[in-house]
Amino acid sequence: MNEIQEYNGMPIEPSNGNGQLSGAEQEGSANILDMVFGVLRRWYIVFVVFVLIAGAGLPAIWYFIEPEYTVTAHIRIAPIIQNILTGDAERGDISNYDMFVNTQARIITSSRVVERVADDLSGRDLAFFSQYRGPFADQLKDAVRGDRAERLDPVEVLNLAINNGIITASPLRNTELVAVSMESSNPADARRIVDSFVRHYMSVEGSASAQGQDEEISLLRTTPAAGYIGTCRYKLKEHQEEDYQRVVEIFKAHDVGYFFYIGGNDSMDTANKIAQLAREEGLELVATGIPKTIDNDVGDTEFELIDHTPGYGSTARYWALNIQNLNEENRGSSPADPVMVVQLMGRKIGFIPAAVRLGDPDREMPLLIVMQESGITVEELTDRVNELLKERGRAIVAVSEGFSVGDLGESRDSFGHTQFSSSKMTVEQILVNHLNEVGIEARGAARGNIPGTDQRHNMIYASKVDLEEAYKVAQKAVLIAREEGSGYMASILRRPGEIYSVDYDRVELEKVANSEREFPEEWISGDRTDVTDEFVEYAEPLLGEDWVSLPLVNGRQRFARLKERYAEKKCPDYTPQAYR
User: Fold this and answer.
1) Of 295, 297, 466, 530, which is the active-site residue?
2) Residue 149 backbone dihedrals phi, psi, to 5 degrees
3) DSSP class of residue 79?
4) What does the alpha-carbon distance between residue 124 and residue 155 come to, in Å, rounded to a whole number?
């Protein structure tokens, strides 16, 4: 029997789904309506009961539930920018002002400020620190679970209040104001806490402003070419007596007690002259020299006065890395331009041109190194280039700016040194022109490359060893001035042994003044177009192993920007003798 047959003959009752109520449902609805109508007929009784309950309940609610107050203080956030010329503080507009204000708001509730507020208020018996345990819901959950509330220290209490929005710091739109607020049932405590946040935020910001100049000084480490300190290219010559008297006048007027002079051999000559002048004039002045020159030409050829000068290691690293780049350039362009001539600094000494060998110590590149000391002619160099073209199909010529190629139309500085970058012609251009005119034994032409001052100011190539030694030799100079007196230069001396290390010492300025070491003859190869492995062993430790870390802001290098503040003028105007 199927299910349909099973229900045949059974009576079917109407379903409630047709919208009609059953008898029981109708009876229940009637009872509810009767109750409602009964209450409405006795509304005055309901009203009296409500008044009685409310009258007793409202005082109880007022007693058990404390009112909440909001205490707010406003801080005006206006950027103060130092005038780069005067050093005076000025109100200034900055880009991304909203970001600046948001940052200040975050500083107000930062750990630096919170810790100071906690230290300030922890001993003042504020009820907030003993009673606040977070939101009421969290406290209720702890009570239900039977968790015993542990006493929190003031820093934890403040951070809990900040996280739960009890204490806030937020900028007000379209204003220069940041609102510091606190919600509390104890307005007196809230006022003291908000006031403490404001005071200690201002203390932190004031401290940061005071430290700002120290931070700028620290940035000098990675600011190239002494750009923000400045340099001097004026030579004190023997017959310029008025200049010497002016120096004495300035030192006396400003009560100068220490004179540190940074530079190469000419600078050490100036430092020595100042030391002698101070002795002759009875000045209480300590004159100390600090070595720095990328040419590495201060001292003696025996490396007994100083092993190397700060600056050289970074320039050597620059060329060790860039000769690798130039080799890839020459490799790629050699079908059309098989000869690359690159000009390097080093007008009278070959330490900089020699540094390209540090980028190819195994001599895998088709590389010729031509220094001022090489002593070969342009014609002899042309023959070497063609020999290399026959052998390798391409050639790289690293040539010193001081290599003799004839008249360059040179200009000279106040020291009488040739300024190759200001001359009418360059060694690189004359050499390229010559190679292309006489013809090279390969298809294509010679081309040139002159990085110029990039090799002495590009900080990305700076040697970390060089930076560290430059800093320490300057520290040594200060100790020498304080403990040894006047007339010395700080020095770097290499310790013997296979592991590179140095000592910092002193040497008399008279011994290094106008000294000019020569590139050791034994470090020049027999064919005069390379350097030996002995040079590589000497210079390679100066390169360092890693890249220097440069501070970047919005993708741009961040250099030192010191306030330019000058001493009060006490002496009359003066024109140096050489400028008259």
Assistant:
1) 295
2) -70, 125
3) -
4) 14
pLDDT of the residue at 12: 38
CA dist., res. 515 & res. 218, Å (int): 32
- Indicate the pairing of strand 446-449 with strand 339-344: parallel
- Tell me which residue of 261, 242, 246, 311 sits closest to 461, measured CA to CA: 311
Decide if pLDDT at 291 tops 80.
yes
Task: Say whether 530 is catalytic.
Answer: no
**Confidence check: pLDDT of 559 > 50:** yes
pLDDT digits (tens, 9 = 90+) for 504-547: 999 999 999 867 799 999 999 999 999 999 999 999 999 999 99
Choose among 80, 134, 72: nearest CA to 108. Answer: 72
Among the residue ranges 62-66, 441-445, 492-496, the one predicted with the least confidence is 62-66
Give the number of other Cβ atoms within 10 Å of residue 440's Cβ: 17
Whether the Cβ atoms of residue 509 and residue 268 lie closer than 8 Å to each other: yes
Give 16's DSSP letter. Answer: G
CA 549 to chain centre: 8
Q: Are 480 and 490 in contact (CB under 8 A)?
A: yes
What is the C-alpha to C-alpha distance for residues 356 and 533, in angstroms, rounded to an integer?
13
CA quadruple 46, 47, 50, 51: dihedral sign: negative
Cα torsion 407, 409, 411, 412 to 10°: value is 20
pLDDT tens digit string along 191-209? 999 999 999 888 887 665 5
Q: Which of 516, 544, 545, 535 is nearest to 369 (CA)?
A: 535
| β-pairing verdict for 411-412 and 395-400 | unpaired
Give, as one character, the DSSP assignment of residue 524. B
The DSSP call for residue 400 is E
Task: Give which of 465, 468, 399, 463 is closest to 431, Cα–Cα.
Answer: 399
Q: Which distant-in-sequence residues (6+ apart) come within 8 Å of 246 by Cβ?
A: 571, 574, 576
d(CA 403, CA 356): 16
Alpha helices in 301-404 (DSSP H): 312-333, 351-354, 378-392
Phi-psi region of 466 (alpha: psi -120 to 50; beta: other; left: phi over 0): alpha
Q: End-to-end CA distance of the chain: give it in Å, rounded.
A: 133
Of 130-144, 249-263, 531-545, minimum mean pLDDT range: 130-144
